[in-house]
Amino acid sequence: MDKINILLVDDNEVIRIFFKDIFWLHGLEGQFHLEIAAGVDEALAILHDPAKKIDVVFLDLVMPITKDGKEITTSEAGMSVLRTVKSDPTMNHIKVIVFSGYTDKKDIEEAKKNGADMYLAKEEHLPQDLIRIFDGLAKKDSSLYQFSK
After folding, report:
1. Whole-angstrom distance, CA of residue 54 vs CA of residue 47
2. Which of 11, 15, 24, 107 could form a disulfide with 63 if both were Cys (CB 3.0 to 4.6 A apart)?
3. 0.70 cut: is pTM over it?
4. Percent residues over pLDDT 90 in the chain
5. How far apart are alpha carbons 127 and 30 in whole angstroms?
6. What domains lie within the chain, and their CATH numbers?
């Protein structure tokens, strides 16, 4: 069985460790391969690498990016990755699950408009919901990882 390739994009080291621990604690290494990116540039490099074949992205929104020569932290960082994935015909099949600490309705609507498959609030969906989503990915049951109707 081919493993499902997941990319976690998050600048918070605690979240990156948390994800690795969930995979280890629940014995998910046999079903999934986890790639991790700490920022936008690293994420885009992994996404554009044909050898990586990413199937699903868990994407933080608010991360640092360089804009007009200055490093700023903004939700535009994650949204730019989302738009890149969903507008590129070679990548638009990739499921993108926004995994953010921001629960502002405006951010959720913008993520949905830009093609996100699901929006998870970090503080509300840990870790049991992640396990349910991983299970849905393994079973190819998209009803377990999409926006509520």
Report:
1. 7
2. 11
3. yes
4. 53
5. 19
6. 8-73+87-140 (3.40.50.2300)
